[in-house]
Amino acid sequence: MDLKTQINLDVIPPHIAIIMDGNGRWAKKYGKPRVFGHRNGVKAVREITEVAANLGVSYLTLYAFSTENWNRPRLEVNALMSLLVETLKVEINTLNKNNIKLTAIGDLSQLPSRTYDTLLEGVEKTKNNDRMTLNLALNYSGRWEIIQATKAIAEKVKAGVLSPSEVSDQVFSEHLATAGIPDPELLIRTSGEYRISNYLLWQIAYSELYFVDIYWPDFREEDFYKAIIDFQQRERRFGKTSDQL
Q1: How many CA atoms lie within 13 A of 209 on its CB side?
Q2: Where are the domains of the chain?
Q3: What is the pTM assigned to this prediction?
Q4: What is the CA radius of gyration of the chain?
Q5: How far is it, in rounded angstroms, from Cα 236 to Cα 184?
Q6: Cα torsion at 225, 230, 234, 238 (round to 10°)?
Q7: What is the rounded CA–CA span in Å between residue 107 and residue 233?
């Protein structure tokens, strides 16, 4: 049976986050350098972005580069940054053609200037698109984001703009990098690893977690459908009992 026909299009999660893991191990499996895996991972990004938009997903957030990734070999980091520039330049027209907006979260100012400038150019050129938002987490850390939000709130309290009693879940969320974006209802991680890796720590408090034993370059349309079907079969209680729903 066609997996897509099993999906209830009325309950598609508005926001899906993905930890795209396994590029390096995929390359090693084929006796290739890690960069080969990252290049093939771009193909998966292209396909899953298009599939998500076609299903009616409003926000797709991809973990593209964490703050910890700077610790990788310099050759790999430089190749990743060059690949990002190359990919952005090639894909901007495709994003516009498909009415997809590009945004990014993370400590973007620390990216190499060429990468930063190309990213901002892509954000600017797609800012009026409204079919779906493709949100890239670059030089991103969940702990960094929470610390930044805490500092911003502390400054407002210090200035008398905000009182401590006014600090709530909503106020805190409004100071995160994802302000204005609903929390992801579904988090997918590829490659068979079962951890969050410092990703959207505040936002995934009630997300459904889906782990799959497939390296990211091999993750395709049918695999994405399986994740959606699995999500739709779960009961989301948010602290309530089944009888209360």
Answers
A1: 16
A2: 11-141+184-232
A3: 0.94
A4: 19
A5: 13
A6: -70
A7: 36
> What's the distance, CA 90 to chain centroid?
20
Q: Dig out the tokens for 182 from the structure.
A: 């609903």
Pick from 216, 47, 61, 207: which is nearest to 132 by CA?
Answer: 61
For the segment 119-130, the average pLDDT, to the nearest whole number, is 98
Q: 240 is written with which tokens?
A: 């309530």
CATH fold, domain 11-141+184-232, is Undecaprenyl pyrophosphate synthetase (3.40.1180)
**Cβ atoms of 233 and 211 closer than 8 Å:** no
Q: Which residues, 6+ apart, have CB-to-CB distance to 79 below 8 Å?
A: 35, 38
100-105 sheet: strands from edge to edge? 100-105, 132-140, 59-66, 15-19, 186-189, 208-211
138: which strand partners?
65
CA distance linking residue 62 with residue 60, whole number of Å: 6
Question: CA-to-CA distance for 209 and 112, rounded, in angstroms?
Answer: 32
Report the chain's mean pLDDT, rounded to a whole number: 95
Dihedral of CA 235/240/242/245: which sign?
negative
Q: Which residues are catalytic?
A: 21, 69
CB 84 within 8 A of CB 157: no
Q: Following DSSP, what letter does each residue of 126-158 receive, concatenated?
A: TTT--SEEEEEEEEE-HHHHHHHHHHHHHHHHH
pLDDT given for residue 171 in this prediction: 98
Residues 126, 89: contact at Cβ < 8 Å? no
| Mutual angle of helices 113-125 and 74-97, in 10-degree steps | 10
CB 220 within 8 A of CB 44: yes
